Amino acid sequence: MKQPKLALTVLAVLGALAAQAHADDALPITVSGFGTGALTMTDTNDGLFNRTNQVGGAGKSARTGVDSNLGLQMTAKLSDSLSLTAQGLVRKNGPSDQYAGEMAWAFAKYKASDEISFRVGRIGLPVYMISDVRNVGYANIMMRAPNEVYRQVTADNIDGADVLYQHNFGETTVTGQLAVGRTRFHASGNYDVEFKPAVSAQVVLENGPFTYRLGHAKAKVNVYDNANLSALLAALNKYGLTSVSAQLPLSDIDGTFTSAGFAMDYNNIVLQGEYAKRKTETRAIQDTSSYYLMGGYRMGKFLPYVMYGDVKQDSIRSFASLPTTGPLAGLTAAANGAIQAGLQSTTAIGVRWDFYKSAAFKFQIDHISTRDGTGYFANATPALAGKSVNVYAAGIDFVF
Amino acid sequence: MKTAIAKLMLAAGLGMAAAPLFAAEIVVIVNPKNPATRMFSEQAGQFFLGKSTLFTPVEHTDGPLRNEFYKKVLDKDATQVKAIWSKLVFTGKATAPKEYGSSAEVKKAVAADVSAIGYIEKSQVDDSVKVILTVQ
Fold this sequence. Notes:
The complex is a heterodimer.
Chain A: H1 5-23, E1 29-42, E2 69-77, E3 82-92, E4 99-111, E5 116-124, H2 147-150, E6 157-169, E7 172-187, E8 191-207, E9 210-224, H3 227-238, H4 242-245, E10 253-266, E11 269-280, E12 288-297, E13 302-313, H5 329-338, E14 344-356, E15 359-370, E16 388-399
Antiparallel strand pairs in A: 1-2, 1-16, 2-3, 3-4, 4-5, 5-6, 6-7, 7-8, 8-9, 9-10, 10-11, 11-12, 12-13, 13-14, 14-15, 15-16
Chain B: H1 2-11, E1 26-30, H2 41-48, E2 56-60, H3 64-74, H4 78-89, E3 98-100, H5 103-112, E4 116-121, E5 130-134
Parallel strand pairs in B: 2-3, 2-4
Antiparallel strand pairs in B: 1-4, 1-5
């Protein structure tokens, strides 16, 4: 993956400052880190359970790769208004089923006033309520961000800039954010997706124990190196089915993502929920609606919780104009396969136990039911279609 | 209710030892040059949860004073506050407050920084800092 100049510059300056920090203790550099060590397994070998953008996953034998990661973050405060931040992350993500390091963020932040700041470089793409901390297990109650919602836009960060505005209206804190940039990332299906540009806006209201969020993002989307889709388009065009192939453009696609979220932490009761809708102008990236709702009850250091998540498709799942019998039946099946989003729902129960001052133990069981296909499972066999799978995960989250 | 649960957990052998009692009165302090003269508990709490950046919070390392302050002012325990800060730190929105091992050091840090806000035992207060809230 190419590293843009800006992010590299931030890194170079941070590196130089860190080297200097050894000589001069007064330099205001803070290093903090987070991580999760977890084991994940399921009760089937008919498909692999994974997180967003992973190509492998867990089956009947326990794997560390799904839910484990390690992050390191360094911030250098150059003055009261200027700081540099870089975050490195090691996890299984992208084209190979191996642990690999990535530069999650590298940005310069300029605090123009107590209420307004600007950031330039590689920043988190703020499309979800927990976009920025979804990899920090310790900062979350659940084992992982629910796949039903968080699979819809799978980019973690963009190279660009944003402006943050924060204002207190009495007891209510309002935060507004507008980010512009671009990104290219490897998707689970072994192809690349590019957002160029991506524009994302969100407003967050915090009032005591309540948090409300609204977000809207727009992008020009390009899909690269998708061998299956390219072959499908070539075949459709060969048989003169251009009206069908025209519905499957792979470049310059307009896409939007609209989301709303709510969270509460009140009198030991914890609630968190998000609703999100994806819309694009290609049937190859399906229009979907999704949501999840989590509720928990804090009992001292223990926090048991339940979660339900669901995703449904809003665009068509088959081309009515294509023949289902005769010589082209195979092509029809391929075309219909390309426009079907993974459908599934998850009911999860789990518990978070804060057993140590900066570490938490989590155990979570997900009961995933696939619908009309094999849901979000990787390398799934047809036997998984319409079936339910249990996923068991246990892990320790820590910060330092 | 809470005590009942705590008792249950004790009975279950989960080792939820009762927190040590912290008897001293806690006060919230700022730099004498800070124009603020009085503050409500809710307002003071905002700074220690990273919700306002108007003043810079100065923290104590883990201990009974900090736990008491969190409980009385924020109605939260130390792990909850830790999780809130880890969210802020790892979103790049804020850096965690500096922690000091004693009230004398917290007082010194507040005396040295016009925008700082901290808390110490009432008995530790002197002219180098200004009290803006007595924690009830």
